[in-house]
């Protein structure tokens, strides 16, 4: 419900689980009494494999779990972490809820907009960064914070975020700047 | 008396998250005693401890378990709610990261008491590191016979499945969680039937918060009486409080119920950041009513005392506003959250959260009309108790309380002759009204 999305067009690229994910998928099935319950974990596998979830992947998951395609589409649309378009190499999720707001996420958004030239929902032309504002990530004690590269970056300041972004831009591991 | 550390006892131990570290600190010691007890004896023990759910609703845990039918052919399930999402709450994350085996031990206690063979831990999708720590702990527990078939030769079988959410606040509601676990949109179910009768996969289900379950090993080790001796008559034991906002040292602090709210905050965190004045306190997550500085200084931190002010203990998420924090913009942030997270199935919530947000947004951006404040107050009662879950209430209750307690700040935004000075982040980013 959170996002009104446009109709998603098929990518034209067929989808099937990689051998690794096929093995993981086989392990998932006995953990649940219904096949429908495997939709979310199967979609996670699909997203990890391709970086986002194509229409073909949704149809594939539906077929594998013997569900109507609409049941899978509805799930993809409902949950904000399922992406139907490729994100940037570094996907920045900046928290904007109460404690991060009090502690100044606005300044961090300002830096991202100035330095990377992108606003919420946008991606840099080189595909290196994409940016979204998200609701509370459960890290209020170390606000302001963001999630990027499948991890949290906490106690951010404009200066620290700039170092992290620079490291990404220069192809260095940004973890070295997390201090 | 110093507050005993029950949940956070091992948070500072570097290796507590590993099986070896947990065992060295006396972990899994309750199992021997546990498996000799009859299930009903375990339920009675938990009932006598007075433990209440720490996810937000504060429902007595033992009583919740006793609603599960004894004579049923259906399998029973435990769903551990690790979908921590109430703004301001970050305490379950610490348990998952630093003490995951306490959660597993608690799961064994609950499963033995209720006769459950499968527990699902529903963890929020963004919790990468907690998921990694929890996953490693579950794997270790299986490899060493603490999970699986015939646990430590007790004849008890318990399987744990970690289920990752995908970004939806509403899945923290117990029936939203159940729907999501079944592979659907996380839209809460009407009750009754309650999950104890018809829960996940149409079977009897216990849904408990991470912290609630993690309190069980201490209760079984030290006894219900020791737990019940802490706190007040009706708010027993300790709770993890996530304190954030404009304080010197934000963080998770364990406290016994019954202490003065502001004193607890001040002693734990060092008080308001930078020596500023206190303006307000949200005591129990963004769904709670707000307390003025005076109220916060004069109320005790327990379920009943906080409820008497119209606010709630909720998930223990305390947020502190200093004198520079703009209440109007804070309400805008809160309402934007609920408008964004409404699942959309009940009109009073879908429409109500949206319109409250729209109106406060236009007030804050200088487009407010004099009648807007009362318009908001008129909308709020129509959102209370009229929906499947409490998300609508969670928006209406703070909205009404912020306006009633800080009305002059709202009026100042509408007074075109004297627009308020925005002290916090002047020139900050304007919210896009429609980009929820």
Low-confidence parts of chain A lasting 5 or more residues at pLDDT below 50? Answer: none
Largest sheet of chain B: 5 strands, mixed
Helix/sheet category of chain A = alpha+beta
3D shape of chain A: elongated
Order of SSEs of chain B, N→C? Answer: HHHHEHHEHEHEHHHEEEHEEHEHEHHHHH
Q: What is the approximate shape of chain B? A: globular
Cα separation of the termini of chain A: 37 Å
Q: How would you portray this structure in words?
A:
The complex is a heterodimer of chains A (179) and B (436). Helices cover 40% and strands 11% of the residues of chain A. Chain A has 2 domains: 19-78, Orthogonal Bundle (Arc Repressor Mutant, subunit A), CATH 1.10.10; 90-172, Glutaredoxin (3-Layer(aba) Sandwich), CATH 3.40.30.10. Chain A has helices spanning 19-28, 39-50, 55-64, 69-78, 98-102, 105-116, 158-169, and strands at 90-95, 122-123, 129-134, 146-148, 151-153. Chain A has 179 residues and is an alpha+beta fold. In chain A, a hairpin with a 5-residue loop joins strand 2 and strand 3 (129-134). Chain A has 7 helices and 5 strands, in the order ααααβααββββα. Chain B has 3 domains: 19-228, NADH-ubiquinone oxidoreductase 51kDa subunit (Rossmann fold, 3-Layer(aba) Sandwich), CATH 3.40.50; 238-322, Ubiquitin-like (UB roll) (Roll); 327-414, NADH-ubiquinone oxidoreductase 51kDa subunit, iron-sulphur binding domain (de novo design (two linked rop proteins), Up-down Bundle), CATH 1.20.1440.230. Helices cover 41% and strands 12% of the residues of chain B. Chain B is built from 19 helices and 11 strands. In chain B, strands 6-5-11-8-9 form a 5-stranded mixed sheet. In chain B, strands 3-2-1-4 form a 4-stranded parallel sheet, with helices on both faces. In chain B, strand 5 and strand 6 (251-256) form a beta hairpin. Chain B is globular. Residues 423-436 of chain B have low confidence and may be disordered. Chains A and B meet through helix 2, helix 4, helix 5 and helix 6 of A and strand 3, strand 5, strand 11 and helix 15 of B.
